[in-house]
Amino acid sequence: DVVMTQSPLSLPVTLGQPASISCRSSQSLVYSDGNTYLNWFQQRPGQSPRRLIYKVSNRDSGVPDRFSGSGSGTDFTLKISRVEAEDVGVYYCMQGTHWPWTFGQGTKVEIK
Amino acid sequence: QVQLVQSGSELKKPGASVKVSCKASGYTFTSYAMNWVRQAPGQGLEWMGWINTNTGNPTYAQGFTGRFVFSLDTSVSTAYLQISSLKAEDTAVYYCARVTVTQPNDYWGQGTLVTVSS
Predict the structure, then answer these.
(1) Domains located in chain A, CATH noted
(2) Rounded to an integer, what distance in angstroms lies between the CA atom of residue B76 and that of residue B18?
(3) Contact A41 B102 (CB under 8 A)
(4) pLDDT in tens, B53-86
(5) Which residue in the set B47, B62, B111 is minimally distant from A103, CB to CB?
(6) Which of A20, A106, B22, B102 is paired with A39 by a 20 to 30 Å CA distance?
(7) From its record, what is one biological process in GO terms (chain A) (predicted)?
(8) Residue B35 confidence class, pLDDT cut points 50, 70, 90
(9) Are B105 and A61 within 8 A, CB to CB?
């Protein structure tokens, strides 16, 4: 299985400041069709997960533009340009290129 | 609007079975696969597998073969997860999710807590 490794695992941030989460895969996530199926999910406390980003950098509907995704191959990043209180939760990267789909361990974002 | 509504929490004894339901509405049920995701208490997310809602063919991730069964009743737009011979380590929240990695928008059920305890 493809191993997804996130860092940091805990991220205390100041409101209004930027935040960045790294995700590295154990093998390339470029699929045979040329696409890279790297996703980012947010799970707020007590809620179901919700996807923010698909195919590395595409925001899902309703996702604020302060969230952005980037990267290629095996190295990916989720950035929050200015953290708001509602961004508290755990963020997971997930690869959908190789079966089985696999998640990173999660990064807990909290307000300082 | 798209909704996935799961059945309520379950408390089961070791060795028993449980069947979790996931009722879909707001879209054509057979147009999208249904996925299942497990989250043990205080832990991360784990993809269990998916079921083709057209053919009923399930695909299981390693670690979810044998005791785990995905099934459908397309007449009521409902997917099911059945777990047999329950163990304490099966205690988790189980989510159904309509997620396609090629297209925008995902939808998740509210989760079903299955607790296995004697």
Answers:
(1) 4-111 (2.60.40.10)
(2) 20
(3) no
(4) 999 999 999 999 999 999 999 999 999 999 999 9
(5) B47
(6) B22
(7) adaptive immune response
(8) very high
(9) yes
